[in-house]
Amino acid sequence: MSFDFSFTDEHEELRATIRGFLQGRSDEAAVREQMATERGYDPETWQQMAEQMGLAGLLIPEEHGGAGFGYVELLIVMEEMGRALFCAPYLGTAVLATNALLQCADEKTRKELLTEIAAGRATASLAHAEPNGRWDLEGIEMEARKTDSGYELTGTKTWVLDGHTADVLLVVARSAEGLSLFRVEPDADGLSRTLVPSLDTTRKLARVTFEGTPAVRVSAGDQTEALRRVLALTQAALAAEQVGGAQRCLEMATDFAKTRLQFGRPIGSYQAIKHKCADMLVEVEMAKSAAYAACFAAATDQDDFLETAALAKACCSETYFHAAAENIQIHGGMGFTWELPVHLYFKRAKASELFLGDAAHHREVLADLVGI
Amino acid sequence: MAEHRIMSDEELRERTRALLDEVHPEKVESIPFRQKQYEHGLAWVHFPEGYGGLGLSPKMNLIVHDEITKHSKVVHNDPPASIIGIGMGAPVVLTYGTEEMKKRLLPKIFSGEEIWCQLFSEPSAGSDVAGLASTAVRDGDDWILNGQKVWTTVAHLSRWGMLLARTNPDVPKHDGLSYFVLDMHAPGVEVRPLYQITGEAEFNEVFMTDVRIPHDRMLGKEGQGWRVAITTLMNERVAIGGGGSKRKGGGATAQLLKLWQERKQGGRSAGQEAILRDRVTRAYIETELLRLTAQRARAAQKSGNPGPEGSVSKLAQAEIHKRLWELAIDVLGDDGLSFEAGYELRQNSPTPDTVEALAKYQFLRSRANSIEGGTSEIMRNILGERVLGLPGEPRVDKEVAWKEVPRS
Question: Which of A118, A146, A180 is a domain's end point?
């Protein structure tokens, strides 16, 4: 492996800048406000992030108006966003849809849409999963029907990130060439987009149905391998977000254990609690190694990137959920209340675990890749 | 930190070549070569001149090793039995020993002529080493020693032992200890093998009955033994945590995967196979995490910004290693019922010649991983208190005379 997990001073500065920004724009009150809305994010914050910080176009090349950064920078941003439970279409637009455009779309589409995304003028969604419950590409059944003017889509796409609000809708469906990327206008005929009431209200998911909906194919040739990479890149970013959240849960739990007194002493002085915290620390540090490895592997284009991404998604999913669950337990009765933010992390953790395939799914992917 | 002398890499390489001109590893045995290496100050270059070193930075030891490797097919590395003497004995003698002790002891530690062992743990003092009960009572210029030590590696080969004994039972436990260099050949010292779960004896028990130690063999002052010992214990934990495979899917994982690939066919239902495959993948992931975390810890150390990633490996490695070998037996299935090597009590460690035999041996041996060098429970206390900053348990043995503290 030819990377060594080293962060530069510029990386540390980036982390401090993002953390500062999110402390101002994504404190608990802001998270609670946004999660209660249908849109799920504050457009003004999104605009500011895009224009002043270049975050919407972090992965987008400079020629298309982006920041031209890579996966090490993205891992830092995702970790900080996960920590703050930041409510924004970031994973859907700046990671999933952006990667799909970069990997699959033709030059004209790439140029047009990436420029809009980088400028903060457009959010985007990639609709791939279907009601059969499969997260792998082989599970995609939707067939695009060729028409005189282009294509028509019929069927349902599930768990589309921000699909109810996205300005740009990208859809994966089968054409004669194999898996292809389609673009659908948000006001197209026969298109219906519905917000799904979700377990984790800090991230919005939609169900999108198509009934002879006109679509434009924006890729050439079979996109199966490119899309596999798109999903793996998204898993790596999500893994980084998961460790950011897990680290925050560990901090909340230990801070509480230091100050909560029972039987005359801090509960963190009891080994029953202290050892839970120590085990969380071990798991979080290991999960960081996995998420960082996946993002560094993406940044340096390692041959075993797909393996590392599967490993990271499997590991970080379980670690985040376990940390979030222990955080409730350590907070005792208060951890179960609406009032404390503890439950928000618990819900985000489980939703992130299920999204793009759970730990068992990714262990199976890894086992196939390494020949177990 | 001590000031290091400045010497160019090239000059150190020249000095190493001068050693090789005088005596070449391909032509002499380990002991005579290492004697000369010591005389040239190339044993531990970070030690002072005249004591096997040149007063350089510890990092420069690698240059000596590199230069020797470049010019010789044979390399006389630290002999396995000398690991304790070199890793713990030499630094403690250098820091606390008299001039005479340094001159007398250090050359033979390095050459391998004299083996050292560590006499800290006792039957009643495991995790709580500072509670130990072996006593040393002053008698003129000597101390008279009585008690029992346990888990002593290479005691049966050792010339010298690093010993902690209680010289004052009337003060709190940490304050009543003194540190001695014990002559393992002295009358009243008896070493017996301690047979373990596998039937082998990697360790010994050491019984001490009215053993006389001259007062000038004390390291540090009377009552300062704990401080002297701390240095030694820190070195041990670093040594144990640093392992793990360097290569993806290497080490224990490779053995597990071999067992998995060669598993008996047809004995399990598809459902059972799927469950087992998931567990094997989990074990693969866990060992990868150890490797990646060690890599991340090295990177953080190099950049001068070390975080908790370096502290978690001892605990993680112990638990992961145990789980991996438990799984290996489950992969063997009914073949796990046999134990071909047998349990004949013996002092040499068996070298399993098949993966199956290795798995069965490691299944038993790995139980010690979460006990030796700090139990996993103690490691969790350390992580909780020193890394996370959680408060300690109320202590019943603080500020109480050692003799008043209940013992088992």
Answer: A118
Residue B123 Rama label (left phi>0; alpha psi -120 to 50; beta)? alpha
- Tell whether A4 is covered by a domain: no
Count up the domains in chain A and report the number: 3
Q: Tell me the pTM.
A: 0.91
**Given CB atoms, is A292 within the 8 Å cutoff of chain B?**
yes
Reference A287, options A304, A262, A311; nearest CA is: A311
Considering the domain architecture, whether residues A172 and A111 belong to the same structural domain is answered as no
Other C-beta atoms closer than 10 Å to the C-beta of B275 total 13
Per-residue model confidence as pLDDT tens for chain A (372 residues): 567 898 999 999 999 999 999 999 999 999 999 999 999 999 999 999 999 999 999 999 999 999 999 999 999 999 999 999 999 999 999 999 999 999 999 999 999 999 999 999 999 999 999 999 999 999 999 999 999 999 999 999 999 999 999 999 999 999 999 999 999 999 999 999 999 999 999 999 999 999 999 999 999 999 999 999 999 999 999 999 999 999 999 999 999 999 999 999 999 999 999 999 999 999 999 999 999 999 999 999 999 999 999 999 999 999 999 999 999 999 999 999 999 999 999 999 999 999 999 999 999 999 999 999
**ipTM (interface predicted TM):** 0.95
Q: Of B202, B237, B272, which marks where a domain is finished?
A: B237
> Does A28 reach chain B within 8 Å, measured CB to CB?
no
| Structural domain for A54, as ranges | 9-118
Q: Tell me: do A25 and A114 sit in the same domain.
A: yes
Distance of CA A10 to the CA centre of its chain: 24
Provide the 3-class DSSP secondary structure of residue B219.
strand
Do A132 and A113 belong to one domain?
no
Asked if the C-beta of B379 comes within 8 angstroms of chain A's C-beta atoms, the answer is yes
Q: Could you tell me how far CA A7 lies from the centroid of its own chain?
A: 22
- Residues with Cβ within 8 Å of residue B5, at least 6 apart in sequence: B54, B55, B56
Under an 8 A CB cutoff, do A278 and B249 touch? no
Burial of B88 (0-12, 13-18, 19+ CB in 10 A): buried
Q: How far is B361 from chain A (nearest CA, A)?
A: 23
Q: What are phi and psi of B221, to 5 degrees?
A: -90, 165
* Gap between the Cα atoms of B178 and B228, Å rounded: 8
